[in-house]
Fold this protein.
Amino acid sequence: KNLKEHDGRLLARWRQGEAAHPGKLEDYAFYAWGLLELYGATFRIDLLEEAHTLARLLLELFFDAEQGGFYPYGKDGEQLITRTKEVYDGAMPSGNAVAALVISQLARLTGEERWRKAADIQFSYLAGAVRRYPAGHSFTLLALLGELWPTAELVCAAEKLPEALSAFLREKPRPGLTVLVKTAADADRLAALAPFTAEYPIPPTGARYYLCRGKACASPVETIEELQSVVS
């Protein structure tokens, strides 16, 4: 409410009614990560849209698209003598590691090449530091799990979010499963973020579940029981 400019850029300090100072890498990365987690819990399209906007600003303001790595200060912020890229975890995970997780998750959620390319560059950059000292880069290793562990992508198309799906996802953690929900109310907004979802029709009644692993997709199913059999 108080720390965002009209173009979506974040500010770092709010005091006595005044907001000031451009947000830093961690502000964007952690907020975007939180929004993606909330989307996975609620499937509110506005949360995914805001995460998408923040990730776009991450790339525009902080990312070294040639060598990889995110700078701590944006290109339009105060320019110091050097622009280092901090990748090790301290008391909090590094902004570089969290940013890697964010763009990796967006690559899987949206299917868009821009996020996949950025994630590949970023993980290549981080790999050298992890190899030298794995214990100092725990969050990067966590983010890498999403890249290296077998994953699956699920799209649910329905008139509204099925409670049965919410209950199914609450039963047990499925860290390798990425889920998008396409409803009649947000179909166009979702297609703007993840164009491939435009091809999934919403059934006149009930829900339809589309599950893909890698480049292979299973036949769509229409009940949670059928979904469970193909996910497990």
